[in-house]
Specification:
- By secondary structure, this protein is of the alpha/beta class.
- It is built from eleven helices and seven strands.
- Helix 1 packs across helix 11.
- The radius of gyration is 18 Å and the shape is globular.
Length: 276
């Protein structure tokens, strides 16, 4: 099984990696349209609709390992050889899990990779507003909270749930109009699909990924908005390369798409220089 994906631009030469984008909870590949419009002139860009979202909304996710396999199957179907994985929020956590599963010798590999095709080569990771994992002592409380949200997503109209969802602290940089816009934009989702994905990829179930990411011999950059105080503090305490984007909160690629695109462009150039 694979996920719905779309491609933009063309592979200009055999050196440039394909840019693969993973959206956040309640989003879809369409969320990247402004970034893709900028980057597809020089790169092949692939957007993926994750399980329970967009045109993959009928795909049911089991856990991180299962979603990771679906992403890999999608890359294989697209015949991608080299790629940079770019993820936002939930998608960023999945991107880190994917990097750990493909590049870390201490991380358990999730399932057998198909032998019929050459495995795509991950060349770099861009993490936008992704959490590295909770201390064990906080996991039970977090999962209980996620279960409550999942119940609401399943039982209530999204038009009633989303105003409360966007009042959470992580969205504190949004003003009233931005919140209302997101409520309208996200109300077309299938609530039960979102609920299943929320539980399957709950932060409470995520392995601790920071030390693994810091130890990987893999180009990685963390991008966050200057108004996203929580995640800015989170990355400042790490050894990862990071970039803070001015005049942006948690969702940098929507609030400052050009600056985010330039950050990716420069990162990909840096990878090329390092390879050279």
């Amino acid at each position: 099984m694979r996920l719905y994906s779309e491609s933009f631009g063309v592979l200009s030469n055999g050196v440039q990696p394909t840019l693969v984008f993973l959206h956040g909870l309640l989003g879809s590949g369409q969320d990247w349209r402004h970034v893709v419009n900028t980057l597809s002139s020089g790169h092949l860009c692939i957007t993926i609709d994750l399980p329970g979202h967009g045109k993959s909304q009928m795909v049911q996710a089991i856990d991180f390992a299962h979603v990771n396999q679906l992403i890999l199957q999608t890359l294989l179907h697209r015949n991608i050889e080299q790629y940079v994985l770019i993820g936002y929020s939930m998608g960023a956590r999945l991107a880190m899990y994917h990097a750990a599963s493909t590049h870390s010798t201490v991380f358990p590999h999730s399932g057998e990779k198909p032998a019929c095709k050459k495995t795509p080569q991950l060349e770099g990771v861009v993490i936008e507003g992704g959490h590295f994992g909770l201390p064990q002592i906080e996991c039970a409380t977090r999962f209980l909270n996620d279960q409550k949200w999942a119940q609401r997503f399943t039982d209530e109209p999204l038009s009633l749930v989303l105003p409360d969802w966007y009042q959470q602290a992580v969205f504190s940089s949004l003003n009233h109009d931005q919140r209302q816009s997101l409520v309208l934009k996200r109300s077309g989702n299938l609530g039960s699909g979102v609920a299943r994905m929320l539980l399957a990829t709950s932060l409470a179930k995520q392995p601790q990924l920071l030390q693994i990411m810091e130890a990987l011999v893999l180009p990685t950059i963390y991008v966050c908005g200057e108004r996203d105080k929580k995640f800015k503090r989170l990355v400042e305490d790490t050894q990862l390369q990071y970039q803070v984007i001015a005049s942006a909160g948690h969702n940098v690629h929507v609030e400052q798409p050009y600056a985010f695109s330039m950050a990716i462009n420069n990162f990909v150039k840096q990878i090329g220089i390092n390879h050279g």
